[in-house]
Amino acid sequence: MPYTTSTRDRRSTDSRPQGEERRGINFHEYQAVAAVVLEISLLGMFLRPVVGPHPIALIYLLGVVLTALFAGRGPCLLAAVMSALFLDFCFLAPVGKLHTANLEDAFTLFTYFIVALFLGQLTSRLRAREKHERLRERRSTTLYQLTGKLAEDTSLEQMLQDVVQQTQAAFAAQIALLLPNPRGELSYHVHPASTYDITGPEQPVADWVFENKRQAGLSTGNVGHVDTLFVPLTTNGHALGVLGLNFSEPSPLTREQRRLLEAFCQHIARALGRHRIGTESERASRWLDPSASVRPCST
After folding, report:
1. pLDDT tens-digit series, residues 214-240
2. Domain-embedded: residue 265
3. SS3 for 177?
4. DSSP code per residue over 55-120
5. What is the pLDDT of residues 155-174, one digit of tens each?
């Protein structure tokens, strides 16, 4: 039985550009930005008799740049608009009205808004790029640790234990590792190294993932009503198992997390494939030369 979402859900999922990361509105950032602008306005009212109205614009500009260090582009845009309106209403003549008395103030207000908007967006973009670089460095370090563990492991059991430990540490989730039985069917009994045991409703989902070689469960377009994300472990078009991740706080994965999970599954599947090839080669050699597995008796 195919597990898919409704037509409406599928349209809403496919309508997003590929690789776009859904990010909810953080109202706390908007509240913090509004509070910063209001505080600067209060400070400017005390400084206006001393320094005049035009230096207040520089203080507003500094506030916009500072908000861009912790807020997104939307809050930065709000800071630029609010500061421009407060600058015009509270400090530029005529005070208390949203228009300027002369061309000089109008040019100052227009220039301030453009510079504030540009600096805010530029600072926000630089902060986002820095965050992306940190995430990429973390991804490289995590993958290096995983590949190092997989290269050191000589037995399948030790390899699977390291896989569960590394995946659990990287994604802060409980891990369920399911492997096929000798008949080639997915076993619902998780590997002993697992830290999470799948429930009855999740078993058909894991089996669907194994058969179709596609993700299902949390934050996917397939069987989204379960809280566990199931990912196939495939190599060369063959499914070698299923990896289940149960998060303490179920939420859609970010784009960087999805990339890291895909890389994890690729390395794990390759390691399982190498072990499978080694096991099959050993069985073939014993079948061709039965005497190789017989130890000579001592006299």
Report:
1. 998 887 777 657 888 999 999 888 888
2. yes
3. strand
4. HHHHHHHHHHHHHHTTS-HHHHHHHHHHHHHHHHHHTSSSTTSSS-SSHHHHHHHHHHHHHHHHHH
5. 888 888 888 888 888 888 89
Sequence-distant (≥ 6) Cβ neighbours of residue 56 within 8 angstroms: 44, 47, 48, 87, 91
**Residue 7 domain-assigned (yes or no):** no
* Pairwise CA distance, residues 80 & 113, whole Å: 6
What residue numbers bound the domain in which 164 lies? 155-289
Specify the 3-state DSSP secondary structure of 176: strand
Q: In this structure, what token pair is assigned to residue 155?
A: 């037995």
Same domain assignment for residues 176 and 92: no
One-letter amino acid for residue 175 of the chain? I
Q: Look up the CATH number of the domain holding residue 263.
A: 3.30.450.40
Q: Which amino acid is at 166?
A: Q
Instruction: Tell me how far apart the alpha carbons of residues 158 and 81 are, in angstroms, rounded to a whole number.
Output: 58
173 and 273 fall within a common domain: yes
Domain count for the chain: 2
Phi, psi of 102, rounded to the nearest 5 degrees? -145, 170
* Mean pLDDT over the full length of the chain: 79
